[in-house]
């Protein structure tokens, strides 16, 4: 079953679950820009509602500074309620 998660101006189409842990789930997804001219496969992590967002925010902001072919790129993040 295909699910969609809409976060303006980007839309994610979830293809499959890659893994699940204590803090949330990681999904294989397609990321499309608002104008739908570009799309790419991404790993999308959605945290559980009980996860402490402040600790993840620091880790994500530090990870966004890393530019290496040996590390996954972080394109962005958003906070919605208690989820990141």
Total beta strand runs: 4
Described by its quaternary structure, the protein is single chain
Strands side by side in the biggest sheet: 1-2-3-4
Count of separate DSSP helical elements? 1
**Shape verdict:** globular
| Whole-number count of domains | 1
Beginning-to-end CA distance, first to last residue: 24 Å
The stretches of 5 or more residues where confidence is low (pLDDT under 50) are none
Mean pLDDT score = 78
Summing up helix and strand content along with how strands pair, one would put the structural category as mainly beta
Rg, nearest Å: 13 Å
Helix-residue proportion: 10-25%
> How much strand content do the residues show?
35-45%
> The biggest beta sheet, please?
4 strands, antiparallel
Q: What is the element string, with H for helices and E for strands?
A: EEEEH
Map the helices and strands.
Blueprint: E1 3-7, E2 10-20, E3 24-32, E4 39-47, H1 53-63
Antiparallel strand pairs: 1-2, 2-3, 3-4
Question: What report would you give on this structure?
Answer:
With 84 residues, this protein is mainly beta. It has one domain (3-63). Helix content is 13%, strand content 40%.
């Amino acid at each position: 079953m295909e699910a969609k998660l809409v976060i303006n101006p980007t839309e994610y189409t979830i293809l499959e679950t890659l893994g699940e842990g204590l803090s949330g789930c990681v999904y294989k997804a397609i990321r499309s820009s608002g104008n739908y001219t570009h799309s790419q496969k991404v790993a999308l992590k959605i945290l559980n509602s009980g996860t402490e967002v402040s600790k993840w925010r620091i880790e994500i902001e530090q990870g966004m500074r890393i530019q290496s072919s040996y590390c996954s790129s972080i394109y962005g993040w958003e906070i919605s309620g208690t989820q990141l």
